[in-house]
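agent> Task received from the user: take the single chain below, predict its 3D structure, and emit structure tokens. No templates, no multimer pairing.
agent> Plan: (1) validate residues, (2) run structure prediction, (3) serialize to tokens, (4) report one or two observations.
agent> Step 1 OK, no nonstandard residues flagged.
tool_call: predict_structure(input=
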Amino acid sequence: MEGQLEYLFAGFAVFWAGLLVYLVWLQARLRALQAEVRRLEERLAEEVPVAEATAATRSASAARVAPEGGA
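)
tool_result: status=success, residues=71
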């Protein structure tokens, strides 16, 4: 019976070690994803003002080109 308890404790040790490794890996992956989201948000924030300026320029150019008769 004592030999069986050693296997039980060894099994628990392997389980907890595996769980710990998985949680550490999961935390590293989560940090990497958070950094990627942060980078994408920064890129989006840089792109939005450029897109707004381009749209404003296009609408101003269209207003100048449009005929005055409203056709």
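agent> Step 4: summary for the user.
The CA atoms of residues 24 and 54 lie 45 Å apart.
agent> Done.
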